[in-house]
Amino acid sequence: MRIRKARFAGSWYTGDPVSLRAEIDEFLELAQDNVYNPAAAGKTSEHRVNERIAKGVRGGMLPHAGIYFSGRGIAHFFNALRNETENIVIVSPSHYVPLNSDTLYAASFDYYDTPIGRIQGLDMTAQAVSGVQVHEQAVAQEHAVEMFLPFIARAKEVSKRPLTVGVLLLSEVSSPDALDSVASAAMELLGEDEIRRGNTVLIASSDYTHYGPRFGHTPFGTRELQVIEHKVEQQDREAAEHFASYQFARLFELKKMRDMTICGFAPGLAVAKIMETVGAEGAVTDYYTSNQFVGPDVGFVAYCSILWR
Question: How many folded domains does the chain comprise?
């Protein structure tokens, strides 16, 4: 039996199951009150979720920092999870293992461990699909995969229904043609009809801008923090809206024009392309930064949530 261990429990999030359940439940409640609604922007500090994406999610682009930071953004997806969903597939970048561009990497773990409980793995290597390779070490090491697993375990526990999890890693997509190929390979592997019906849902794992000297990214300087945060948010929201509305040509243009530090840019492209294919409708549901948790700092990370129904 092949089991992916919860290697980041106790460091990136609490390893205590009682505390972890309480934190996840709190994030699920918090997320209901912190949803970006373009129609309400500037009117209140807290925006209610748009009814059109309140339930029936088929895909998401969600943050993957330590759960203290990413939990609120992740929770939007699980608040909108369909009752009929059986499989959750995480499409993640690889932070630790170099991978070839335009290629999906899978693993064949039987189970994924979390402090809350064990989740059955979806066999991602049972069928040979062009453009999909196997790299279990990369999946085992990746924090951008693990942050979602406790939420899946909690959803399984509360709903009392089986949920399985699968993982695909994707480092880079080099062109629009390559994006078509990557998305087609994923749909062949997972089943386009399963995704269309919401039986299988997808998560693109990605934080947004990583700003500051420690990230080597200071296009707006380091002095005027409010100005920096405003400009970063403008650029992040622009990219997020393009992901949500399938403006792939513009996203490739922005990637060339800017020194972008959206670490899950490629997974975001792949999931968005699949969502376009199955006729889903996307919306940006939240945006915030690490500064909201630790106080003002010129070194910060931005987090954005997109849901596709």
Answer: 1
CB atoms within 10 A of CB 82: 15
pTM: 0.93
Whether the CB-CB separation of 92 and 132 falls below 8 Å is answered with no
Q: How far apart are CA 177 and CA 297, in angstroms?
A: 40
CB of 80 closer than 8 Å to CB of 133: no
First-to-last C-alpha distance (Å) of the chain: 35
Q: What's the burial of 234, exposed, middle or buried (CB within 10 Å: 0-12/13-18/19+)?
A: exposed
Picking from 274, 268, 301, 244, the residue whose alpha carbon sits closest to that of residue 91 is 268
**Bridge partners of residue 205, in order along the sequence:** 62
34: CATH: 3.40.830.10
DSSP letters for 217-271 = B-TT-SS-HHHHHHHHHHHHHHHHHHHHTT-HHHHHHHHHHS----TTHHHHHHH
Which residues are CB-neighbours of 110 under 8 A, at least 6 positions away? 1, 2, 3, 120, 121
Domain carrying residue 112: 3-308
Block means of pLDDT (10 residues each) for the chain, 309 residues, are 96 98 94 59 37 72 97 96 95 97 95 98 87 95 98 96 96 98 97 97 98 97 98 98 98 95 98 98 96 97 97
30-31-34-38 Cα dihedral, nearest 10 degrees? -170
Cα–Cα distance, 249 to 308 (Å, whole number): 19
Residue 303: beta bridge partners? Answer: 288
Could you say which DSSP state residue 82 is in? -
Residue 249 exposed, middle or buried by CB count within 10 Å (0-12, 13-18, 19+): exposed
d(CA 122, CA 109): 8
